[in-house]
Design goal:
The structure holds 2 protein chains of 2 kinds. Chain A contains 17 helices and 25 strands. Classes of the chains: A alpha+beta, B mainly beta.
């Protein structure tokens, strides 16, 4: 016998028959089997409010990890202007220390050299412009001077202005990406498919981007089918290979919103089993959940004052075939290069478009060059002209003997394209291997945190519904699959039944509805044939999306569930002010 | 001298200490007798092990003294709610309450509820003289505290107590030494074992853990919960959770010492001291959290219990000390009077503290750990117990006795509740002894005690205002065998 047993015997001395106390146990659960036709079951619903004020919902790293990806992706924060980021990235890339640049893979080094190409550093060998060198040698004029005069830049200035390159990248590469044009968001009447336009030159940033430390950008702006409906169809190759590390203060990003809501879910009934289920209530309150007069309604912490991305690699893919520069002025205005028929995002097209835009900035002019030294009569040995169409002619006096013929007339962009294509394949790269890769570090996003926060505030104030999914996911207290639920409007003890709407459907861990909204006759009816609807979408507490009906003891209603079964609902009584007892009978 | 119902407030102490978070004084049922109705601090029988070990010194033959009895009583309580209460199926965290949010039905007197316990009790003593009239050893097993209460499950007292069962038993080894012809000294060492179970509706609104859980992030709502929660946030359906503590065992040690002085043939004077005992009840608790509010609604905020939380419960408290002064006078050959005054240091009982432990209690995000400590203020007063017993020898074979007594209340109005229905207590009893043989006496006793009906209007936070009544009866018998 154990000591404990001996002790128990001792203390029981003299009280052997004393009363005992039953330990608390759980009441047996109510039956939950599916109702048979004609079978009835009673359920009591409770409407319990927990009205909270300044109910802080904080999204920190932990919460972000916990929320479904779909919810994060659909929680739009703001559209970020990309120009500063692209310009900064190009700037960082072109200003890489030489040693670091030399260590880059050949395609990246080639692009580094190309972007830094000046008239003085231009290598024209292997191109038709090599004739320019011959011209220069023949008349004693530096070809770089001819090139600088033609381009309208100084001998040591980049031939391609960074702003123009950025423009072209934004227009040709970024803006053409299918995921840059639209973003996902909540389904509303105005956006029934949950898709929203994104302004050109911007990308939509969502909580998912924050949650993934911006790594999601490379996934989103990587290779993507042009038509999402045809994933195997033509695709955009993407422009971001990697991105990560949005600059954050210690502790990481934290976003806190404060809500004034009833934090508890509604209790409803899953009619087929006459069992109680819960329906999240936060989403329906989101439109009036924020006190925008209180600046604390949204607080963002943990972002560095000036945002930057720790690492980013931009890419522009080359066309696998050689796209020769044009040789003809026609068809106007671009000439006959096949590059203009290529996809706008391919490298050659980007180069050609850059050349075209550079040409547009050059005023029509002619420059004549005479041989070096004293000549009694002015002798115009070389004449270089560019007209308003960007057509370049280099005329050499016939008296000048050249080892190689001068460059043929061509559009300015064709000249540059030929040089660029040649330089991009330096190092023995074959056609199709010169994909541009630009790895950069610590790239300023070009947006100040306070501006980011201000934009997020503005966007949510305009449309609080963007936070609906997030708020629901944060509270995630929908349980079961209610067909209808019990509500007492603010400040009343009236009893109402609401029929579930699509947004009430329980979500899975990925944020997707666990079942389709397959109700063919949502609402409440007075007859089992469902011919006389007694519910409506009358607005109550800002809600006009639910079919609803006020109910009093003795009332009899009929509903049809998503599987087409009809149920009779009888309000049996009110056990207390905020409770309602219903008898659910399966009618068919 | 005789009988002795142990203070009724002493049971409340024990039981109350068992009551978990709310704590509650224990019932008004303690074992009304230890020994027979004629046992007492000036009486030399086996029960002197308990009353005054010095009195053992007068036992000149081995003695076996034991008996059994039945305790029955009625504890009545008619609750008067004097505060304002929220409609119980709502959940406002703090006042003020709007019109319509108060429950007009929770005002004034409720229907009376009553517990009518019936429980057996018993004791057994043995005395062994080893040096004639010099040294006597004693051994006793007895039950000074016993209570069994069962109130209605959903009565207005349910937040104080629904059911309780408590026993505190002593096993004492004593020795008495006659140091002078008319002066004896005795001492005993006791093992104090306790067993307790109870059940109540636990009002979570009074727990500091709940107060903090709601006020701190991530819920972050100012609230009036906590030990001093006003009535307007109490007794809400969602926060009223059934709980029980069962099979809580306590093991403690105590001692007593005593003197017995006989200045003359007819007069005996006694002085005894019973030391307190540190009791530590360890048992199992069960807490019904089977409400979606606790199991799912705020899970994302970190509030998520399993439907039934079970774990270890520990209740620690100190039994009070008692100093008893007794005297007896053999007035005539046939008539004797015994009496005593006992001073009990119930002020030792400032609060009941309960510790519940279970990994399932932990709600880390809300700052609630696996241990929850609950304190129920008691702030009891020291009490006085006076009692007198007259014994009349009818014949050589038959003796009768009568007892009257009084106990002052320990519980102040502020902290009284149905678990310790305390008040000015009047005691009365009748007894008879029949000498069956030369070596066997048979005792029969009937005893009653009750409090003067007590109306309380200043209960802390309106927890237990109302009218208390209590009456307890004992009927039993003992046999004393001398060898």
């Amino acid at each position: 016998m154990t000591t404990r047993r001996v002790s128990a015997l001792l203390v029981l001395l003299g009280a052997s028959a004393a009363g005992c106390v039953e330990p608390v146990t759980l009441a047996p659960p109510p039956p939950e089997s599916e109702l048979a036709v004609g079978e009835s079951r009673e359920v009591t619903l409770r409407f319990l409010r927990l009205d909270v004020k300044d109910f802080a919902q904080t999204l920190g790293p932990e919460e972000l990890r916990r929320l479904p990806r779909k919810t994060l992706e659909e929680t739009w924060l703001f559209d970020m202007e990309l120009r500063p980021l692209v310009e900064n990235a190009l700037d960082r890339f072109t200003h890489l220390p030489l040693e670091e640049a030399k260590a880059l893979p050949q395609p990246a080094w080639n692009m580094f050299a190309l972007l830094n190409m000046t008239p003085a550093s231009a290598r024209l060998d292997g191109t038709s412009l090599a004739g320019l060198t011959a011209v220069g040698e023949a008349v004693g004029i530096s070809p770089s001077r001819i090139l600088a005069d033609l381009a309208g830049v100084g001998p040591n200035e980049p031939l391609a202005a960074r702003s123009i390159v950025a423009d072209v990248v934004l227009d040709q590469v970024v803006a053409t990406h299918p995921r840059a044009r639209i973003r996902s968001g909540p389904v509303t009447a105005d956006h029934p498919e949950g898709l929203y336009d994104v302004e050109k030159g911007k990308i939509a940033l969502t909580l998912y981007d924050v949650a993934t430390d911006f790594a999601s950008l490379s996934e989103r702006f990587g290779r993507a089918p042009l038509d999402p409906a045809h994933p195997e169809g033509p695709a955009h190759p993407g422009f971001l290979r990697s991105a990560s590390g949005l600059s954050a203060a210690e502790g990481g990003f934290r976003m806190t919103v404060r809500l004034d809501v009833n934090a508890l879910p509604y209790r409803g009934v899953e009619a087929s089993h006459a069992r109680i289920a819960s329906v999240n209530s936060i989403g329906g309150q989101i439109g009036r959940a924020f006190d925008f007069s209180d600046p604390r309604w949204l607080e963002v912490q943990g972002l560095a004052e000036d945002l930057s991305i720790r690492e980013m690699t931009m890419t522009i893919d080359e066309d696998p075939t050689y796209l020769a520069p044009g040789t003809s002025r026609d068809p106007r205005p671009l000439g006959n290069s096949p590059v203009w028929n290529a996809a706008p995002w391919v490298e050659e097209r980007v180069l050609a478009e850059t050349g075209r835009r550079l040409a547009a900035r050059i005023s029509p002019h002619c420059t004549t060059y005479s041989p070096a030294g004293e000549v009694s009569d002015p002798f115009e040995a070389v004449r270089v002209c560019i007209d308003a169409d960007g057509w370049v002619r280099i005329d050499v006096d016939p008296s000048v003997i050249l080892a190689v013929p001068p460059p043929r007339p061509s559009y300015y962009w064709d000249m540059l394209l030929e040089v660029a294509e040649a330089r991009m394949h330096d190092g023995g790269l074959a056609e199709g291997e010169a994909n541009v890769v630009m790895p950069v570090h610590d790239v300023p996003v070009g947006v100040r945190t306070e501006d980011v926060v201000a934009r997020i505030r503005e966007n949510i104030e305009t449309s609080p519904v963007v936070l609906r999914d997030m708020a629901e996911a944060l509270t995630q207290n929908t349980r079961g699959d209610a067909d209808f639920f019990y509500v007492q409007p603010d400040g009343t003890a009236e009893d109402w039944l609401y029929f579930v709407a699509p947004e009430d459907i329980r979500k899975d861990t990925e944020g997707n509805p666990v079942r389709p909204y397959a109700y063919t006759s949502p609402g409440f009816f007075a007859d089992p044939a469902l011919t006389r609807k007694v519910s409506s979408r009358v607005e109550i507490d800002g809600d006009d999306t639910h079919e609803k009906v006020r109910i009093e003891p003795g009332d009899r209603l009929y509903v049809k569930d998503a599987e087409g079964r009809v149920f009779e609902i009888v309000a049996e009584g009110k056990p207390s002010l905020h409770r309602l007892t219903l008898v659910v009978t399966r009618a068919s | 001298m005789s009988r002795r119902p142990l203070r009724i407030a002493s049971l409340p102490l024990a039981l109350g200490s068992l009551l978990a978070s709310q704590g509650a004084g224990a019932s008004g049922l303690d074992a009304p007798l230890v020994g027979s109705g004629q046992s007492g601090p000036t009486i030399s029988d086996g029960a002197a092990v308990h009353w005054n070990p010095a009195a053992l010194a007068d036992i000149d033959r081995p003695e076996l003294f034991g008996g059994a009895g039945l305790v029955a009583g009625r504890v009545g309580y008619r609750r008067e709610r004097r505060g304002v209460y929220q409609t119980p199926d709502t959940l406002r965290l703090r006042g003020p309450l709007a019109i319509g949010e108060t429950d007009p039905g929770k005002r004034g007197f409720s229907e009376e509820v009553a517990a009518t316990p019936i429980a057996p009790t018993g004791d057994l003593f043995f005395a062994l003289p080893v040096a004639e009239r010099r040294l006597v050893f004693g051994l006793g097993a007895y039950v000074p505290y016993a209570a069994a209460l069962r109130f209605p499950e959903n009565g207005p007292q349910a937040w104080q107590l629904q059911q309780a069962f408590i026993v505190a038993s002593y096993v004492t080894a004593s020795a008495a030494l006659r140091v002078l012809p008319n002066l004896s000294f005795g001492a005993g060492v006791s093992y104090v074992g306790g067993l307790a179970s109870l059940r109540k509706k636990q009002d979570l609104a009074e727990l500091p853990e709940i107060q903090r859980a709601f006020s701190n992030p991530p819920i972050g709502q100012p609230n009036e919960f906590g030990p001093n929660a006003p009535s307007r946030v109490r007794e809400l359906d969602v926060l009223s959770r059934p709980m029980s503590i069962t099979n809580a065992l306590s093991h403690g040690v105590s001692f007593n010492v005593g003197l017995l002085y006989q200045p003359s043939e007819d007069v005996r004077l006694a002085l005894a001291y019973q030391h307190g005992a540190q009791m530590r009840y360890r048992g199992r608790f069960a807490l019904d959290k089977n409400d979606p509010f606790f199991t799912q609604d705020l899970a994302a905020q970190g509030l998520q219990y399993p439907p039934l939380v079970q774990g270890d419960a520990e209740l620690a408290f100190r039994l009070p000390k008692r100093i008893t002064a007794g005297a007896s006078v053999q007035a005539t050959r046939a008539f004797r009077v015994d009496g005593f005054v006992q001073y009990v240091t119930y002020s030792d009982v400032d609060a009941f503290v309960v510790m519940a432990r279970s990994p399932k209690l932990a709600q880390p995000r809300l700052g609630i750990g696996p241990s929850v400590r609950a304190i129920l203020p008691r702030k009891w007063n020291d009490t006085v117990w006076v009692e007198a017993n007259g014994r009349f020898v009818i014949s050589r074979l038959f003796t009768m006795s009568a007892t009257v007594g009084y106990q002052s209340p320990a519980s102040p109005d502020e902290t009284i509740d149905v678990g310790s229905p305390d008040g000015h207590r009047l005691i009365g009893g009748l007894g008879a002894v029949v000498r069956a043989t030369q070596w066997l006496d048979l005792h029969a006793d009937a005893r009653a005690q009750g409090i003067l009906p007590r109306t309380v209007t200043t209960s802390r936070n309106d927890l237990a205002n109302g009218r208390y009544t209590m009456a307890i009866g004992y009927l039993g018998g003992h046999a004393k065998a001398r060898f």
